[in-house]
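Escalated from tier 1: coenzyme A holo job.
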Amino acid sequence: MHIDSTNIYAFPYFEEKRMLNTSIRKLTPEDAPWVHVFWIEHWGSDLMVVHGQTFTSSGLPGFVVEENGQVLGLATYRIENDECELMSIDSLIEGQGIGSQLLEAVIATARQAGLRRLYLSTSNDNMNAMRFYQKRGFRFCALRPGAVTETRRLKPAIPLVGFNSIPIRDELELELFL
Ligand SMILES: CC(C)(COP(=O)(O)OP(=O)(O)OC[C@H]1O[C@@H](n2cnc3c(N)ncnc32)[C@H](O)[C@@H]1OP(=O)(O)O)[C@@H](O)C(=O)NCCC(=O)NCCS
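Tier 2 regenerated the structure:
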């Protein structure tokens, strides 16, 4: 199914807290165009630079949460050897279970594939993400001081200051053994 990216932010999703009637499905190749736009809109670019490696959204597997064809959340991941890396996770209505649904789908997929570890990187300002992952069993396994400052040379769209007015400088890695 093709989803028009202009619908991503559609009213009334930010206007009210109400019971959502969502469904989750795997991404298909037809989703690639709007996923590309989604990454640019949410991450400043279709380039994701983590642990010194550069990725694009192109061809990444993932899951989308929708309500009536409207995108409410997206997660992408990649598999290398016996490990799965969560490349992105975004919920457009926070605190209603969308992020958990996406994360659980990635965990279940990785377990079914017999993988050993799921890991991800986040930036030092993202306290919300750090809470979210730790409450779901993830533990910190690496700190890369100055990694985001370095990445900003390649990707100037990364803001200098992030959540809670915290300067964005470092990359933290969290992992979950499956
Ligand atoms: C991190 C992120 C994906 C979490 O998504 P989310 O949709 O808010 O996640 P959930 O709603 O599943 O969980 C958030 C909280 O809401 C609570 N919640 C879930 N469903 C709920 C409901 N129906 N009513 C009330 N609260 C609910 C959860 O218990 C959870 O609290 P906890 O973490 O203290 O246990 C989201 O904050 C996000 O998109 N952030 C911006 C992008 C980002 O930083 N991504 C991570 C990059 S590493």
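The beta strands are 23-26, 47-50, 53-56, 62-67, 70-80, 83-91, 117-123, 139-144, 171-177.
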